[in-house]
Amino acid sequence: MAYWLIKSEPVKYNWEMFEKDKQTTWDGVRNYAARIHLKAMKKGDEAFFYHSNDGMEIVGIAKVAREFYQDPTTEDNNWVAVDFKASVKLKKPVTLAQMKADKRLANMALIRISRLSVSPVTEEEWNIILKMANE
Length: 135
Known about the structure:
The protein is of the alpha+beta class. It has helices spanning 15-21, 32-40, 96-101, 109-112, 123-133, and strands at 3-8, 23-26, 46-51, 57-70, 80-95, 118-121. It is globular, with a radius of gyration of 14 Å.
C-alpha cells in the first residue's frame, strides 16, 4: 500500500462535505507532477485529506476507491481523476506549522513542494503524522 496527500480548499470542498458525500471524484487536477501521482494510486491506498489555504491542516484520511480514469471535467485525454472514499476523521488535526517544526518531516513533499495538490507520503511520514494526530 502507498500513502498520499490530497489538498482541498475548505471553502470549496471540506472534510465535512466529504464525510456527508461518503465518496468523491478527485478531478480538475491540471499539474503534471500531480497527474503522475494520481496515475500511481491503487485501490485501497490511503491519503491524508489536507485543508489548504484556510486551515492548512490534515483533517482526515481518505481511501482510493477507484483508480485513475479520464477526468470527466475535460475532453483532454491527458488528464485523469481518481475516486476517494472518506475513511477516518483525525482525532486532532495536524497543522502545517506542526509538520514544519518536526525535523523528521523536512523532506516531506508537502513541505518541499507546497504548491502540489497531490503528493506522495512515505510510510515513516505517515506514521509520524498519525502519532501527532493522536497526541
